[in-house]
Amino acid sequence: MMKAFFLMAGIFLWGISGCKTPANKTTATHTGKLVVSELCNHYVVALETGSIDKNNLAESWTDNKRNMTFKNVFSVASKCSFAKAELAEGDVFSFELTDSTVTENCAICMAYYPTPEQKLMIKNIRKITKP
Question: Is 90 inside any structural domain?
């Protein structure tokens, strides 16, 4: 009876030891502000907090329609999932970067609106404030 108890306890401990998430698997959360929301899912986000490689951000970008210049911005490449977050211009939100090979399928019209060349796929979008 004691052998069975120790055997079961050993199997239990062995099983739960494999359920821990490694420390290096954490995902960094960033904060951004939606500065441009235009027709056909053209979105521009200004990085508020978090660290993103400078090569993936436009240091300075001007939106001629608004006659405004924004710093540290990027275009949202994950247009389908971003639209589902239902954010408005001026909203501040948290997000995570995701793999750029993810394919999204949704209907997007072909109208052109100028956005920064730097495009990022983002996920886990959560609104923090309203404009």
Answer: yes
Give the CA distances from residue 78 to residues 6, 13, 18, 39, 106, in Å, rounded to whole numbers and listed in that order: 51, 41, 33, 15, 10
Closest CA relative to residue 36, chosen from 93, 89, 111, 80: 89
Strand partners, 89: none
Using one digit for the tens of pLDDT, what is the confidence trace for 21-49?
A: 444 334 679 999 999 999 999 999 999 99
Beta bridge partners of 34: 45
Query: In angstroms, what CA-CA distances link 124 with 19, 84, 107, 127?
Result: 23, 11, 21, 10
Identify the CATH number of the domain in which residue 86 sits: 2.40.50
**DSSP-H helix ranges across 18-64:** none
**Secondary structure (3-state) at 68:** strand
